[in-house]
Amino acid sequence: MKKITLSLIVVSAVFLLGLNVAGEQNFAYVDSEYILNKVPAYDQAQKKLDQLSEGWEAEIEAKYKEVEKMYSEFQAEQALLLDDIKRKREEAIIAKEKEAKALQKKYFGRDGELQKKQTELIKPIQDEVFNAVKELASEGGYALVFDSSTGGNILYSDDKYDKSDDVLKKLGY
């Protein structure tokens, strides 16, 4: 993360120095978070993702409760069990816990179902916003358009350069 932030700072500094050399350039900024929150399709996609996530979390929680129940029963009966049966029960508990972890990874891990659904539902909306920003920049002759929602690169901004509402107009909202 530090490497990315440092790279962004260096690129920004070089670009800003280039702007001074090239003369006065037009620039603007948008707040992509503000824009996305005004797009109904984004809100619907977020709600769908939340529903899926809640369902998957409940499924995983049920698996872990099953593991806890098995372990509690094992603890209560452990003194009465033969070594062979103890080992089999411990293996069953461990296998059930691995199953719960695998399910958790399947849904929420890197390249998991949630990540795939986010890409499927949200990326097209983000692409549409990006294309509107690109079109606005081209029409307005902006050499550079910052995203103020990402924070790091803007220390001060004058609202007259905020083109977020113009992007929403381009999108038809």
Q: Can I get a quick summary?
A:
The chain has 173 residues and is mainly α. The protein has helices spanning 2-22, 32-38, 40-77, 83-108, 113-140, 164-171, and strands spanning 26-30, 142-147. The two termini are 34 Å apart.
Can you walk through the features of this model?
With 173 residues, the chain is mainly alpha-helical. It has one domain (2-171). Helices cover 74% and strands 6% of the residues. The chain is built from six helices and two strands, in the order H-E-H-H-H-H-E-H. The protein has helices spanning 2-22, 32-38, 40-77, 83-108, 113-140, 164-171, and strands spanning 26-30, 142-147. A two-stranded parallel sheet has the order 1-2. Helix 3 runs antiparallel to helix 4 (83-108). The radius of gyration is 26 Å and the shape is rod-shaped.
- Would you list the SSEs in sequence order as H and E? HEHHHHEH
Please outline the major beta sheet. 2 strands, parallel
Q: What structural class is derived from the secondary structure elements? A: mainly alpha
DSSP summary, beta strand count? 2
- Classify the beta-strand content into a percent band: 5-15%
* Number of spatially distinct domains: 1
